[in-house]
Every structure is written in C-alpha cells, then in structure tokens.
Design goal:
By secondary structure, the chain is α+β, with helices and mostly antiparallel strands. It is built from 21 helices and 14 strands. Pathway: Carbohydrate biosynthesis; gluconeogenesis. It is an enzyme of class 4 (lyase).
Length: 539
C-alpha cells in the first residue's frame, strides 16, 4: 500500500460536506473524464446504496457533475456544478437506484458520451477519505485505485501486448509498480491496468499505440486534491531515499517517542523528518510541505471565521447560524473567551462543511471542526506565531497518522469515536506541544482524549454530516483542551497511546452496524429525527 503521509491525515482540502460522498464522488468522475477521448457532452450518473439515499444532502450529484467537467474536489464551483454544466453544454442526468444491490454502499455508474460520439460506462466506488477507485469499464471488471499514476490500455487479448507496453515504458525510464490484465474471455476484449511511479508522455503513449492489438491508451495521474499553483517545486531524489524513509517510518507511538528522545526533538519535528523522507521517495513534482501547511492553515482559518459574520445554511437544512449566535453571546455566557471562541469556531467549520464550503478533513470531514477550533482559539489567545501553528499541524498529523495506520478514523468502521475521538486526540497533542509539553506528555494528552470519547456512536440524522456532528465537534474541541491541560499538569494516562488506540479499534469493531454511520440507530432513530428522514426522502 502507498505509505500514509501528512496529506492523507490532514486532508484532503475539499468542498464539504463528506469526504466519501462529496470529495470521493468528484474523484470518481474525474477519473472517468480522464478515460474519455474528447470532452463530455452528455452524462448519466446512476447512484446506488448510500449515494442513492443521501445524494442531495451531501452534494454528491453536484460533486459528480463538477468532476466530469474537470473540477478538483477543492474547487468552490462544485456548488454551482449544474449551472456550469449548462454553460458548457453538457447534459447531466441524475438517476438514483435504491433497489439494485451493490457490493459497496458508495457506488455510481457513469454513463457518458463525448463530443466525438463515443460512449463509455464506468463504475466507481468511493472508499473513504476522499479516495476512490474504478472497478468496471465498459462491462470489464478492473481495479484502478488512483493512489499512483495509472495507465489503462484497451486491447485485444493477444500475445505480445504486455511485452510491447513494458518495453515502451522501460525505454523511457518509467518505473512500473503493478500490472493487471482484465479480460472478458480468452482472445476477447481486455484492459491492462498499470500503476506507475512516473508520468507518461504523449510520445510514449503514441509509441504504445503502434501495436496493432492496442485500441486505446489512457493515462490517469495520481490525485492531487489540493495543489496551490504557485507552490510546485521539482525535487531531486537521492538513491538512498527509500532506505532513509524506512528508518523514519514509525510503526507506532513507541517508535516515534524513541526517535524524539534520541534526537531531542518534538513530535512535530519527528513527523516533519518523516514527511521529508517520504516526499523524497516520490518521483514527481509535489507541493512542498511548508506550502501545503500554509494552505491548510489558510483554509482552516477561513472555514472557522466566515460563518461568524455570515450564517451558512446547510444542504440538508438541519444546521446553520449556530456559530454566529455563540459568537454574539461571547463573554455574556458561561465560557471563558478561549472556550467560547473555540466552540464558535468548531460550529462554524461544520457549517462551512455542511453548506459545501471549503474545509480541511482532519482526519475526516465529519470531524473537521475540532483541530481548527483548538488551533485558532489558542492562536487568538496566546498569539502563537505562524511557524508554531505549522508545527502544531505537524504534531496533529503524527497522531492522526498513528491512529490511521493502526486502527481507523472512519465512522463506518469504528463509530464516531474513530472520527471525533481521533480529531480530539490530534488537537490535544497539538495543544500540549504548543504550550511546551514533552513528546511523552503530548501522547498522554492524546490518549486521554481518546479514552474520554471511547464508545461514541456514529448516528447521523438523515445520514447527513450535520447533526449531531456539529455539536460533537465543539464538545471534542473542549475535550482536547481538558486532556492537554491534564497532561501539562503532569497527569499521565493509565495506558500507553498504542494500547489506547488498540482499545478504541476493538470497541469500534464491537459496535453494531446500526451505530456505525448507517443512520439506523442512536439519535437518528428518535421519532423527530425519523420524521426528518421522511421529509428528506420526499425533497
């Protein structure tokens, strides 16, 4: 598997409200577009499973439309995708299918005709965290993940095709990661799907097409879900890069802490060293870590402040205006300035997310309000520098990376504790480091935050990332500061971080399916909430 990095945990930077239903849907359509020989002129999206039931409230229909038009998941034009399609002369049809059973709940068939008159049908699934894969092309089962560069060769199943392809690639120094052949039958139609480490030029593609049995070649670049145009920097990669990364690829908190002690560095510096080593193994132009962190902080600040002056009604209609009301109450309420600001920021980010604004999934869209709320409120209160804020994000990234690697941050797999609990742990550790805590104390803060949310169920009303998600983000931010305060006071958590993460994972796996993002249990089944479900289905 592709090693996890900062961008996998603090990201994607995306238009809300759902990393799987919005960003992942956009990515599916983008991948489908890359397979076309000409721009699309008509497309039908057939939605299945969860996509079919909640597409309006999640903006899945808009995200798919924007993706087929070439928009990235962080493009604010996702909200106006239908108008954009009309302006471009692309006919879009949305067809929810709530009857047909599919293997994955987030499944869509993209049936598209391009300007040359060619027709193609692609099935894609959104696998979480903004990631997606193509599982079928024109009736042939494939497996195109998009984690790396992909090249898809449509061919007759004939001898010599693979040898020709690999010769063309190796002759131009393109390294092949994996090769898979998918065919209808022996000597029938087939697709060869290659995962590549390098970009393939038009010259190489033209040479591959010279083979008589090859009908078409499509190149799908690895996703770059948020790439500031002025921050692309080419890097030279030493031969020892992979070995260096392996030495810094901390498998657990124990290894991370050992490195911090040996080098005398904070968690943020240790994770920055790992990120630098990871980036040096990727033979492609990438946004520098510093530029990415700057972009993250910029989006976080905007998503946490905009709704304070202008309420942002959600797509599903459950939330909107709460952040502004808390901010207006301010010092007249029960909370200190630090805590009421933090609460308002957390509510605001979730309003931004639910109204299809731009947010940073940290680690998910459903928990995207926790980390920015804590960081922005602390910066407002203590005037931390921009560099300190960068380090805080790196620290949070390290905690999120360890949880993602050894457990899960997906509500569908581990309940709300996996999303909100992880975000709270990330924020607690970051806050502790900002206030001068040692790496060990940061891990105690993260462990405490997780244990305080252990067993929290994922029960979104109407299946939307709105309620009770919004209020839980504010609560998780408060939990993070309490956990950090205890760690700063020298209070150690009863179990090491790795054991606490394992406990969270086991608890999540033990939760019944009704309490893991299905909207079939918990608050989602209260009579008032069920009435909203009926109203939403008729909308």
């Amino acid at each position: 598997m592709k090693p996890l990095g900062l961008r996998d945990v603090i990201g994607p930077i995306m238009i809300g409200p759902s990393s799987s239903h919005t960003a992942g849907a956009c990515r599916i359509a983008l991948m489908a577009r890359s397979l076309l020989s000409a721009p699309p002129c008509a497309v039908e999206f057939v939605l299945y499973g969860s996509f079919a039931h909640t597409y309006r409230g999640h903006g899945t229909d808009r995200a798919l439309t924007a993706g087929i038009l070439g928009c990235l998941p962080d493009d604010e034009r996702l909200r106006e995708a239908f108008d954009l399609a009309a302006d471009m002369g692309v006919d879009v049809t949305i067809s929810p299918d709530t009857v047909t059973e599919v293997t994955h709940p987030n499944t869509v068939d993209v049936r598209v005709r391009d300007e040359r008159g060619d027709f193609m049908e692609v099935r894609g699934v959104s696998i979480g965290g903004g990631a997606a894969k193509i599982v079928r092309i024109d009736g042939i089962d494939v497996d195109v993940t998009g984690a790396y560069h992909n090249m898809i060769v449509y061919q007759d199943d004939a001898p010599g095709v693979l040898a020709h392809i690999t010769a063309c690639l190796s002759g131009r120094g393109v390294n092949i990661g994996t090769v898979r052949l998918h065919r209808t039958e022996k000597a029938g139609d087939a697709f060869t799907v290659l995962e590549l480490d390098d970009v393939v030029s038009d010259e190489v593609i033209a040479r591959i097409l010279e083979f008589p049995a090859i009908k078409s070649v499509r190149f799908i670049p690895a996703p770059s879900l948020s790439r500031p145009a002025d921050a692309i920097t080419p890097v030279m990669y030493p031969a020892s890069a992979r070995k260096t990364f392996q030495q810094l690829d901390f498998a657990n908190a124990e290894e991370l802490l050992a490195y911090c002690r040996e080098e005398g560095v904070a968690i943020s510096r240790a994770f920055a060293d790992r990120e630098e080593a990871l980036m040096s193994t990727r033979p492609a132009e990438e946004v520098t870590t510093e530029a990415y962190l700057d972009h993250v902080l910029q989006v976080m600040r905007a998503s946490a402040t905009r709704p304070l002056s202008q309420a942002a009604p959600s797509m599903g209609g459950l939330i909107g205006g709460e952040a502004q009301r808390v901010a207006q109450l301010g010092d007249k309420g029960l909370l200190s300035p630090l805590f009421w600001r933090m609460s308002a920021y957390a509510l605001a980010v979730m309003e931004t997310n639910a109204s299809m604004g731009c947010i940073v999934a940290a680690p998910t869209a459903g928990s995207s309000g926790v980390l920015p709320a804590v960081l922005m409120a602390l910066q407002d209160t203590f005037s931390f520098s921009h560099r300190q804020m960068r380090d805080a994000v790196l620290n949070a990234g390290a905690i999120g990376y360890l949880i993602t690697r050894n457990a899960t941050v997906a509500g569908a797999e581990g309940g709300c504790q996996a999303e909100i609990g992880s975000a709270s742990a990330m924020a607690a550790s970051a806050a502790a480091e900002l206030m001068g805590a040692s790496p060990a104390a940061c891990l105690h803060a993260a462990s405490t935050a997780i244990s305080n949310t252990l067993g929290m169920v994922c029960d979104p009303i109407g299946g939307l990332v709105e309620a009770p998600c919004q209020m839980r983000n504010a609560s998780a931010a408060s939990n993070a500061l309490i956990a950090a305060q205890c760690a700063l006071a020298g209070i150690a958590h009863i179990a090491p971080f790795d054991e606490t993460v394992d406990a969270m994972y086991r608890v999540g796996r033990a939760l019944p399916a009704e309490l893991r993002e299905t909207a079939l249990g918990g608050m989602a089944t209260c009579p008032s909430c069920m009435a909203f479900n009926v109203q939403l289905s008729k909308a």
